[in-house]
Amino acid sequence: MPTPKIKHDWYQTESFVVITILAKNSENIKINYTETMLSVSAKLPSGSEYSLELDLAHPIVPDQCSYKVVPSKIEVKLKKRDGLRWTALEGSSVAGVTAKPIPAAIMNDDPVKYPTSSKTPKDWNRVENEIKKEEEEEKPEGDAALNALFQKIYKGGSDEVRRAMNKSFLESGGTVLSTNWNEVGNTTVETKPPDGLEWKKWDS
Fold first, then answer.
1. Count of domains for the chain
2. In terms of DSSP H, where are the helices of the chain?
3. 77 and 153 in a common domain
4. Do 147 and 114 fall into the same domain?
5. Which residue range(s) make up the domain with 114?
6. What is 156-180 written as a DSSP string?
7. Please, are residues 78 and 18 in contact by the beta-carbon 8 Å criterion?
8. Which residues partner with 15 through β-bridges?
9. Both ends of the chain: CA-CA distance in Å?
10. Model confidence over 54-78: pLDDT tens digits?
11. Do the beta carbons of residue 75 and residue 20 sit within 8 Å?
12. Secondary structure letter of residue 155 according to DSSP
């Protein structure tokens, strides 16, 4: 029986190359690593055997490689021997380009585009920025909206505006909030409870 066509893909970080094999519910998985080769074999639910042999584009460190198996896939994590950006998974001659060390600044700043063979890779930084923008533009309602307005006024106000807001709020027991220092600066701000309510001190 011919080997079934099972899709595999890969992406990389500064230190690792990660290969994802979409072999569902596979059993009897055997994985071998050498410095330049990866061999994967597994038994599929259909009873057929799956096998993948890769001549790697660059050397790896076999002792620091690992893999995990979940119902939907097999994931193999290969430790790069050198800090190089791989331009291809197999055979360095395939790319026809000599790999160069990855500048730390690039690896730190650029999110991993994965899988790299995808025609439309997701820019996760952009997604995150869009979510933040939506959160910032989300308009609060009721008390939350009022508090947000007061915070905005206080943050953008002059020293006099801030003094007026603090003085009026504290002296009135939280019932008056004024931004006019000329109005509240030279007098004690009286308590003004809402209509129909009576102000009482806590200990009265």
1. 2
2. 92-95, 104-109, 124-137, 142-156, 159-171, 181-184
3. no
4. no
5. 8-127
6. HS-HHHHHHHHHHHHHTTTS-----
7. yes
8. none
9. 91
10. 999 999 999 999 999 999 999 999 9
11. yes
12. H
- 75 vs 21: CA distance, rounded Å: 6
Final residue of a structural domain among 80, 100, 127:
127
For residues 65 and 31, what is the distance between their CA atoms, to the nearest angstrom?
10
155's tokens: 């943050």
pLDDT tens for each residue of 141-173: 666 666 666 677 777 778 777 787 877 777 766
- CA separation for the pair 154, 18 (Å, rounded): 51
> Token digits for 203?
């200990």
Same domain, 23 and 113: yes
What tokens does 72 get?
């939907």
DSSP structural state of residue 89: S
On whether both 163 and 77 belong to a single domain, the answer is no
Provide Rg for the chain, Cα atoms: 32
What three-state secondary structure class fits 100?
coil
Bridge partners, 27 (sequence order): 43
Q: Considering only CA atoms, which of 47, 59, 42 is closest in space to residue 8?
A: 42
